[in-house]
Design brief:
- The chain is an alpha/beta fold.
- The protein has a single domain, classed as Phosphoenolpyruvate-binding domains (TIM Barrel).
- Helices cover about 45% and strands about 10% of the residues.
- The protein has an 8-stranded parallel β-barrel with strand order 1-2-3-4-5-6-7-8, surrounded by 8 helices.
- Helix 3 links the parallel strand 1 and strand 2.
- The N terminus is likely disordered.
């Protein structure tokens, strides 16, 4: 029976020493962290899984709070948020600057547009790309994300983004800035249909060297299959999950995804994942707001007369 995680893709249950992402920061916080190294280290058990906060609302003020808490990653959702390029850039910078490098910025971009990929990476973030269906999709994404014709990169070098001698100092002094950036920023792809999962073996065979993790978009996958909800036990869906797990094991590819709910659910959903969304703004707002509303209705009386009004009524009755 298929599992709900990528355990066998990792296979390591060894405890790792907690760390924070300052160990992976670049010389400038305007550059991406060594996110590729962090993902691989988490996958191979050298550090704990990356703890991710998923920001689905376009809310810069929330960033300034969450960036102080110690999450390894804050993932900005440009795909489903009313977020323009300027706001995305400011929020990505705030994550890394306010956290003083403890937290990496990551952006789920909107589609596969070449310019969108460049804009997101130019902020100093890593990226997550939705709806990757075919080898051709993956090749286009990798090309748009990388500098240099040697690896078929078509990303344009931004002349005013990293200043000479100030913010362009590389992690590895033997490489150019552009080679360093290629090695630092990570790419997570989302497979969100049965077709995409069926094609994943070919995708990773052709492009796996430049892809750093895979996220199963279970909601879109189930929508495409005519199934309700985020998850289920239908045989046809579990077959998709098993195909995914088998492919991740074959390619030794890190698995990314969410782990939300009760402690038992978090443990089960997070097992084997290297990049784990454990909380998000919509989820925390919803759960806290509903809990507080329920508590208020239970604890406060149906008619709650203030002390002043109560005294006035008593005097009227006399």
């Amino acid at each position: 029976m298929a599992t709900t995680n990528g355990t066998a893709a990792n296979g390591s249950a060894n405890a790792a020493t907690p760390t924070d992402m300052r160990a992976y920061r670049a010389p400038s916080l305007l550059q991406p962290h060594r996110a590729r190294d962090a993902l691989r280290d988490a996958h191979e058990g050298r550090i704990p899984p990356l703890q991710v906060y998923f920001l689905m609302l376009s809310a810069p003020s929330i960033i300034k709070v969450i960036a102080q808490l110690g999450y390894d990653v804050i993932l900005l959702d440009m795909e489903h948020s009313p977020m323009d390029i300027g706001e995305m850039t400011r929020m990505a910078h705030d994550i890394q600057l306010v956290s003083e490098g403890r937290t990496m910025s990551w952006i789920r971009i909107c589609g596969h547009d070449h310019a969108n990929i460049g804009y997101a990476l130019d902020t100093g973030a890593s990226i997550m790309v939705p709806q990757v269906e075919t080898v051709e999709d993956a090749k286009h994404i990798v090309s748009a994300a990388k500098f240099g014709k040697k690896i078929n990169g078509t990303r344009s070098a931004p002349p005013g983004r990293w200043l000479p001698g100030i913010s362009d100092i590389g992690v590895n002094s033997e490489l150019t800035l552009w080679e360093n950036l290629n090695n630092q920023a990570a790419i997570i792809i989302q497979v969100e249909s049965k077709q995409a999962v069926d094609n994943l073996d070919d995708i990773l065979t052709e492009c796996g060297e430049h892809i750093d993790a895979v996220w199963l978009g279970s909601l879109d996958c189930r929508v495409s299959m005519g199934l309700p909800g985020f998850w289920g036990e239908e045989p046809e869906f579990l077959e998709v999950v098993e195909t995914l797990n088998r492919t991740l094991r074959k390619h030794d590819m890190p698995f990314a995804g969410a782990a939300l709910g009760t402690p038992e659910q978090v443990k089960a959903m997070g097992e084997g994942k290297s990049f784990v969304a454990v909380q998000g703004d919509v989820f925390s707002l919803l759960s806290t707001a509903m809990e507080n509303l329920t508590t208020g209705r239970e604890l406060l009386p149906a008619v709650n007369i203030s002390a002043a009004n109560k005294k006035a009524r008593e005097q009227e009755q006399k």
